[in-house]
Structures are given as structure tokens and as C-alpha cells.
Amino acid sequence: MTIHQLRIFLAVARHNSYTRAAEELRLTQPAVSAQVRELERTLDSTFFERVGRTIVLTEAGRELLTYAQKVCTLIDEAKMVMEELDELKRGRVAIAAVSTAGAYVLPSLLGAFRHRHPGITISLDVANRATVQRRLLHNEVDLIVMGRPPERVPHVAEPFLSDELVVVASPSHPLAKAKRVSVDRLGKEVLIARETGSGTRINADEFFRQQGVTLPVGMELGDNSAVKEAVAAGLGIALLSRHAIRMELALRRLIVLDVKGLPLHRQWYVVHREDKRLSRAAVAFKAFLLTSAEAVLASPKQPWQANRRARG
């Protein structure tokens, strides 16, 4: 039994698929299957069984899953301790972020952090809220970034960046130049919504419910870009983060409606498991978010880009 085999086993168990595990590990599907079969021969057990078109863990597989996670976690912790001895000259941070933060907030911050610590490698997984929470639950990442801290797993959540949620529309919308639009008036509009379960959708549903207004959902889309395109095409209005619409506002493809009770103020949080022993690299990145995120994103020019141009 090898660590390599255990990591392959964990990937297959996580995806319930040899093919998707192979894609994640950048191996061929036959190679993944062969390693699992070898592990089964070594331990004289069967760890997966086929149910319809998918595979699921057997009882033996569920038992091995617990131990494999512990073994791999201990090995990763040992690696982190060794990396800490190098005083941030090298290291690795694994982050998962909900789609709005991952696409519109973190890229500039990652650039600024990498400018300070070029030896640290950062992996960023951008996914929906449920997937991000699941990755935290299974201890697959160091940090997660989201607008609403998770509910299920004991965690430490700290706000690092302010955000506003606003109603956006096409510049040709009848309410584009209206002042102090009532929420009741918005009730006559069609909502272009994010998918159920996303932080933005939860905020939108809560806001309109508290106002006693129900907006018909014209489209439900799982991507901010798709929502923005639908709104720009005049198909409805949407409640979105200001961070997600900066370019569209600058280009006048979208406008923010002047609505009573808006904008909604919220925070972006950096979160980790309560029992997580963060590496020095992860601690450094978390500290960077808490102390520098507002200033970096408020700057009209990113300082590391300016310095790079000056050197060139």
C-alpha cells in the first residue's frame, strides 16, 4: 500500500468516478483503475461497486476512506512543517472561493500577494457555495472565501472586505433614470437570478421577502457573466455584487438602479476549519487579506504591475 494509491483512492471516492479522478490527478483512466485494483489486492477487499452508471463506496471502502484521509492529512502536515522552516521562501496555499469572489475579488489580491512572496504557490478553486463548503468540510483546502460563513462545520471566519449588492439593469431600462425607486415598483420587473443556494441568490431572496415583494424569476443562471449578459440584453434586472459589475458600469453596458433600501452591505469572509493547523504560507495569505485587501482593491493602479512596468 502506497501514499500514491491512497490519494488516487480518495480522488475516486470524492468524485464517484474513475474518469473524473483521472482528470483531477492528470492521469489516464486505466492508470487510476489499475492503482485502485492493486490497492484492493493488497488489502484483500473491494472498495467500489457499480450502481447504475455510477460507482459508490462499499462498506470496506467507507472504512478505508476515514483512515486514508487521516494518513494523507498527516503527511500533508509533515510537508507543511518542513516548508515552514524555509521562512516563506516557498510554500503552498489551497483556496476555494465562491464564484463572485473567485472571479472578481481574489485575482487582483493574489497578484499583489505573489508580488510580495513569489515563492509561494497558490491554487484557487472557484465553485458554487455548496462545493466550497464541502471542500472545507472534507479538509481539502486551507482557506475558503465566501460572503456567508458556512453552517455545518466548526470554523473561524473573519471579514476582510466590504461589498455592496445593488440592482442592475440595461441603460435602456424604463427605470434607468428614476430616483428612489420603491421595492414595490420592482415587483413588476422580471428577475434574472443566480442559482438557488448561491450566496447572492440567498441575499436577493431575503431582501425581497423582507420587503414583501415577489419578483417573477425570468431566468435562473449559475454564472455571474451569464446573468450580466441577460440583463444587458434587456431581459430583466438582477441583484449583483458591485465587485462583479465594475467593468460593465465603466463601459455603460449596465447601470445601477436607485432603489430605496439599497445597496445591501455585506462582507467577504476568509474562513478555515476550527481544527485546521494553517501553514505559515496560509497564515501569511490570511493576514494579507485582513490587512491589505481593501487598500489593494481601492487603488486605481495595482502597485506590483506599476513596479513591473517601471523595471521594464
Note down, in words, how this protein is organized.
This protein has three domains: 3-82, Orthogonal Bundle (Arc Repressor Mutant, subunit A); 88-161 and 267-300, D-Maltodextrin-Binding Protein, domain 2, CATH 3.40.190; 163-266, Periplasmic binding protein-like II (D-Maltodextrin-Binding Protein, domain 2). It is built from twelve helices and eleven strands. It has helices spanning 3-15, 18-25, 29-43, 59-84, 99-116, 129-137, 183-186, 199-210, 224-232, 246-250, 280-298, 303-311, and strands spanning 48-51, 54-57, 91-98, 120-127, 143-146, 155-169, 191-194, 217-221, 238-241, 255-256, 264-273. The strands form three sheets. Strands 3, 4, 5, 6, 9, 10 and 11 form a seven-stranded mixed beta sheet that branches. The model is unreliable at 302-312 (pLDDT under 50).
Summarize this entry quickly.
The chain is α/β, with parallel strands linked by helices. The protein has three domains: 3-82, Orthogonal Bundle (Arc Repressor Mutant, subunit A), CATH 1.10.10.10; 88-161 and 267-300, 3-Layer(aba) Sandwich (D-Maltodextrin-Binding Protein, domain 2), CATH 3.40.190.10; 163-266, D-Maltodextrin-Binding Protein, domain 2.
Key structural traits:
Arc Repressor Mutant, subunit A; alpha/beta; 12 helices; D-Maltodextrin-Binding Protein, domain 2; disordered C terminus; two-stranded antiparallel ribbon; 312 residues
Radius of gyration: 23 Å
CATH class of the largest domain: Alpha Beta
Main beta sheet: 7 strands, mixed
- The stretches of 5 or more residues where confidence is low (pLDDT under 50) are 302-312
- Seen as an oligomer or otherwise, the chain set is single chain
The N- and C-terminal alpha carbons lie at a distance of 52 Å
Find the CATH superfamily of the largest domain.
Periplasmic binding protein-like II
Given helix and strand content, the structural type is alpha/beta
The structural domain count equals: 3
Q: In total, how many beta strands?
A: 11
CATH topology value of the largest domain: D-Maltodextrin-Binding Protein, domain 2
Overall CATH architecture of the largest domain: 3-Layer(aba) Sandwich
